[in-house]
């Protein structure tokens, strides 16, 4: 298995079917437009591949806030459904954690939907994350 950053539109297109498993509301063109916009804000997309197939993807940014200081923020983390529970997510998340640490980040943060109990268990039990807040949203 190989982990690398995806930097071109062609690579982002290859990652779309995996990302679509998490971000079901996105169509290919809206996905590409958002990735391009987010790149301007520091968004980086990484993929775990095996034999040329993308098995998992994660999108991250480095942020600085008063609460966390300089930290890595995980926007997206998804493993292809047929490859879950085989260590792909753990390998990819560990990789980007180290990537952030090497760039001066003191912690990592992410949000996860309320219904994603398996993901919560993964973050807390496998990856050592603490549940520290609730996230609120208001749609305009």
UniProtKB/TrEMBL annotation:
Q: Which keywords accompany this UniProt record?
A: Acyltransferase, Transferase
What is the residue range of the signal peptide feature?
none
Carries keyword NAD?
no
Top-rank taxon of the source lineage equals Bacteria
What is the protein name stated in its UniProt record? Answer: Acetyltransferase (GNAT) family protein
Q: Identify the Gene3D superfamilies for this entry.
A: 3.40.630.30
Q: Which InterPro entries is this protein grouped with?
A: Acyl_CoA_acyltransferase (IPR016181), Bact_Acetyltransf (IPR050832), GNAT_dom (IPR000182)
Q: Name one GO molecular function term.
A: acyltransferase activity, transferring groups other than amino-acyl groups
Q: Which organism is it from?
A: Kroppenstedtia eburnea
Q: Could you tell me which residue ranges the N-acetyltransferase domain spans? A: 1-140
């Amino acid at each position: 298995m190989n982990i690398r950053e995806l930097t071109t539109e062609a690579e982002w297109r290859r990652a779309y079917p995996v990302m679509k498993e998490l971000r079901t509301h996105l169509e290919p063109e809206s996905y590409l437009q958002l990735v391009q916009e987010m790149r301007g804000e520091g968004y980086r997309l990484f993929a775990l591949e095996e034999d040329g197939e993308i098995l998992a993807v994660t999108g991250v940014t480095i942020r600085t806030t008063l609460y966390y200081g300089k930290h890595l923020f995980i926007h997206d983390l998804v493993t292809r459904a047929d490859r879950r529970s085989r260590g792909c997510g753990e390998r990819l998340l560990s990789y980007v954690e180290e990537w952030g640490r090497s760039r001066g980040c003191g912690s990592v943060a992410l949000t996860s939907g309320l219904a994603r109990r398996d993901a919560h268990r993964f973050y807390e039990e496998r990856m050592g994350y603490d549940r520290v807040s609730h996230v609120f949203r208001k749609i305009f």
